[in-house]
Amino acid sequence: MHQTIADRVKALRHRLNLTQHALGQLAGVSKQAVSQWERALTEPHWEALLALQASRGVNPRWLLHGEGPMLLGEGAEPATAGGCAGLVHPIVVWDDPADLPEGQYVLIPRRRVALSAGNGNLVFEEEEAPPLAFTSDWARQTGVRPGNAVVVYAKGDSMEPGIRDGDVLLVDTDIECDRVREGRVYALRYGQELRVKRLFRRYDGALILRSDNAGRYPDEIIPPEHQNGQVHVIGRVVWRGGGV
């Protein structure tokens, strides 16, 4: 019998003996989001997969494609020291791109831009900072091409707990507004503001900007007639980095 992503989410939750609320806390999403995963209404986004990998060693490839073991460290995945199988990688120190092992890393440009994860932050200029290095294997796995990606910074608390104020965000800019996938997190310009929001399309074509911190930030509804010239999807957030 063919197993779907929804089936695997349920199997994972039962294996870890977690409620939907508890699994959502680990993934940085709401209980409702987990319920939607299990009903095949939406799919886990990449930042949720990374959170599950970091917290419980969940294998993203298994959850998305059914490949390999459910948990890293089981079966074919090699174990690493300290009980964090598959999660420990050597730190590479570099001052110049030439210092990196040839062919093993890609460089993603970084912009000194504060994307609003709150009520919006006016941006008057963009200043380029030194790039960040990601492994080539990771870039291939996520489908991110270096020429279509940029690293920016989140501002505000509307996307907590998944994205926090000051977090580093990798944005895949190879996306168009009409290709928005329901429930994924996107960086977008709304008027003169830069936002980080979870996007949904309503039945009438309206765009819903939703915050994960919904208790403080209600949905923003943008009708179709107000979208042209006002809303521009910069790209999908595929990775976040920040303090613990």
UniProtKB/TrEMBL annotation:
Q: Name one Pfam family in it.
A: Peptidase_S24
Top-level taxonomic group: Bacteria
Gene3D superfamilies according to UniProt: lambda repressor-like DNA-binding domains (1.10.260.40), Umud Fragment, subunit A (2.10.109.10)
Identify the SUPFAM superfamilies for this entry: lambda repressor-like DNA-binding domains, LexA/Signal peptidase
Annotated Gene Ontology MF terms? DNA binding
Which InterPro entries does the protein's record reference? Cro/C1-type_HTH, Lambda_DNA-bd_dom_sf, LexA-like, LexA/Signal_pep-like_sf, Peptidase_S24_S26A/B/C
List residues of the HTH cro/C1-type domain: 9-63
User: Cross-referenced PANTHER family, in alphabetical order?
Assistant: HTH-TYPE TRANSCRIPTIONAL REGULATOR PRTR (PTHR40661:SF2), PTHR40661
Q: What is this protein called?
A: Phage repressor protein C with HTH and peptisase S24 domain
Protein species of origin: Marichromatium gracile
